[in-house]
Amino acid sequence: MTQEAELPGKRVLVLRPDELGPSDQKMWREIRTESGAPANPFLDPLFTVAVGRVRPGARVAVLQDDGSPVGFFPYEAGVLGRGRAIGLGVSDSQGAVLRPGVRLDARRLLRVCGLASWEFDNLEAGQEAFAAHAVEELDSPVVDIGDGFEAYARRLRAQSPGFLRQTLAKERKLARQVGEVRFVYDARDPGALRALMEWKSAQYRRTGRQDRFAQEWITRLVALLGRSEDPECRGVLSVLYAADRPVAAHFGLRSRTVLSWWFPAYDRAYAKYSPGLVLQLRLLEAAAADGVEMLDLGSGPARYKESLKTRDLRVYEGAVVRAVPGGAVHWLGREPARAARRFVRNRPGLAAAAARTLEEVGRLRGG
């Protein structure tokens, strides 16, 4: 379904992700490398192709200069021209992949793509064309492990000595009271993946949040990425076992050098042992040994992230909106709710009260 249009000095082809050829994907990755940005797997072409298999509105605008690609803009198109970042809701890094020096006018790009708006909630830093339309800047903590796990552990002992000591003590207690503790970094265990999804769904419901695994496209996307063998974008299931029973698990997405912390969960029956934190320390050690240089914990506040992180990246939330009827529909449908969330998030006391309310709603829903 190739569509052609023009930007000043650029030819734009709009394709379905499955219409990208091997040369397109190779060029996408080369341009991404030239940009110097972290090799986040969510901005790899394979993630866009996978989303395209489960989301019929997925598209890619290919920007060409003299017949050669100089940029790729993945997105999803909805009714009335309402667009969103590819995989919005589960993608932790969003934006366009552009050759250094290429400049865009965001609204003109949307026009040639037939979009009235384009929404993002984890726009990576350096995306100037879209960042001008952001309404909030968020911290996205990361853990740098490029120098090896031992170097990171020394830093962790210095900045959070109690955290590390207590977590290791709980791991020993788990082994004494439950059984031998075993960690598998890259597990091929369908039962453990099912357990992870059940624990995570229960967590979403318990905290009054939307259950992502109740959305078929997300479970299908996880299954697709879990089968990938591509080193630039593949799912990794990590499992912590006690007495050969899964007690915590994490399904993440990795490239050669970046692992995104995506879907972590644990069995609440073992909560007193903090199995999620035990798993995370084991995962950091194994990932560093496997060549991962950075674990991206994703935006959103969490106490354990503050204990583990080495620094913060910046990501942005907002939307590019054109002055057309579809843009007005987007604004009326999304911006008031976004403003309310921002108001609450910036007031810790109010945010804590909101979290308690959501948990109570989740408890009532669960009966």
TrEMBL record:
GO molecular function: acyltransferase activity
Domain BioF2-like acetyltransferase: 165-306
Top EC class for this record: transferase
E.C. numbers: 2.3.1.-
Claim: Protein biosynthesis is one of the keywords in the record: no
Gene3D superfamilies per record: 3.40.630.30
Lineage top rank: taxon: Bacteria
A Pfam match: Acetyltransf_6
Alphabetized UniProt keyword annotations: Acyltransferase, Transferase
Protein name as catalogued: GNAT family N-acetyltransferase
InterPro entries the record matches: Acyl_CoA_acyltransferase, BioF2-like_GNAT_dom
